[in-house]
Amino acid sequence: MATSAPDQHEADPGFYGDAGQVEQESELKGDPTSKKREDGKWELTEGDAWDVLGYSFPTWRKWQILIVVFFIQISMNLNASMYANAVGGIVEKFGVSKQAARVPQMTFLVAYAFGCELWAPWSEELGRWPIQQMSLFLVNIWQIPCALAPNYATYVVCRALGGLSTAGGSVTLGVLADMWEPNDQEYAVAFLVLSSVGGSVVGAIVGSFVEAYLSLPWVFWIQLIFGGFVQAVHFFFNPETRATILLDREAKRRRKAGETNVYGPNELHKLTFREVWTIWYRPFYMFFTEPIVLWLSLLSGFSDALIFSFLESFALVYKQWGFSTVQVGLAFLPLLIGYFLSYLSYLPSIHRFRGIRRKDPGALQPEARLWWLLYLAPLEAIGLFGFAWTSLGPSHGIPWIAPMIFSSLVGIANYAIYQSSIDYMTAAYGPYAASATGGNDLARDFLAGIAALYSTPMYTNIPGRPLEYASTILACLAILVTAPIYIFYKKGPQIRAKSKFALSLDETRAKNMKRRQSSVAAAGLAGMKTGIDEKESV
């Protein structure tokens, strides 16, 4: 489902208190990479050990780690959508209504919305690797009682627990942030967003084959098999990437090598309940108080909810052409094609804007990251209007491929909305990007969960032409929720100026440049010392 923006420990001033101010400058001769405490202990910082951090991993290693994370995200979202293919079997086996059978899908998604935020602080404290392993393990465990469910209530409870157990984008995109700095991560973010939007569609396609050819328990066994495979690959191939954890390990290594009084960040500072609470509540606070966060989150949530509306409505639409269960599943392929086309369309603009920023770091405002979305966002309403009135079916001489073409336009817009909203909020809110996009995650998963319940009644109970009118209503809503994009593009700087959270790019970049310059200077001094020692030995 959702992925939130990179959540960097060092990039969140509020992490250490509600005032949001942390003194990170050095007290040692103005060196910003060294921190000496009052008790005489030296805290190892990024500039002291840049070579051991994820930023210094070889490019091939970064992308290998990211590909594994990509499949973790696919697995999570497959779990969210594939349940729709179990509804018919649950109705038949336990005698509940179809609407009741959809409740466990809603409980999973709503719990997923909150689970993403609940896991985030612990990935800061314990590291990405153990949290992802624990999350994958728990999600996989909850598939077993669903596969063996003796009654309907088991689905409701275990699906909710599965949603709460899903670490989601708060951790997966955090891994990305551990390896790329903000101005270098656009290609990686674009790639990972593809897994966030594409996983639900993959679940719909795979689920259709399971529903057609296997029994009800296999809907959950397949999820367990794929989840177990992904967990095993992550266990063996992905290392820890969290900077504070790697600095702790480096500090321990140095102490063993004889360097005394050097400690890592987590060795000197442990999360308090107040800090955990700050991390948990800030996404919700920003969601309701920041106009940019609120509207972009609602837009992103609306777009994601459309996919779960399609999970319910596609069968109603395509049965007019006599589609089988598998054919209805394959009807989601145009959405997937739309995602890939949208992803590819972003690459030239990413390349162009990166080149501009490298020549002149202050040349572009964060709003520049919304530029390509201005052209792709209207495709959401266009696609929905087109899907609505090509749903009239073969009785009006409309071929089955027509609604598929328009659904692919929805896919293009859906990817673009999520990609640009994540990219923009990361740039606009700097240190608070994780909290800003946490609200985005909340809206996406929560609204998707609600959509699982209202979609079928909406597509069946509206008088007259329910299929056409339902999609038309969604198209009108798409116009409403996409309109603020153009306001933010024009008036974004003024809106951000009134925010106590939004920081300028220049301020954030200055800190990053200072850190990198210190790291380079330290490396240069080390090289000079090595050269002098070699000359003296000669």
Automatic annotation (TrEMBL):
Q: Gene3D superfamilies in the record, alphabetically?
A: MFS general substrate transporter like domains
Name the keywords, alphabetized: Membrane, Transmembrane, Transmembrane helix
State any GO CC term: plasma membrane
Q: Does the keyword Transmembrane apply?
A: yes
Biased composition range(s): Basic and acidic residues: 26-40
Provenance organism: Trichodelitschia bisporula
Membrane-topology descriptor: Multi-pass membrane protein
Report TM segments: 65-83, 187-206, 218-237, 292-311, 331-349, 370-392, 398-418, 469-489
Give a Pfam family name: MFS_1
- Region span, Disordered: 1-40
Q: Which InterPro entries match?
A: MFS, MFS_trans_sf
Name the chain's protein. Answer: MFS general substrate transporter
Quote the subcellular location field of this record: Membrane
MF terms in GO: transmembrane transporter activity
Upper lineage is: Eukaryota, Fungi, Dikarya, Ascomycota, Pezizomycotina
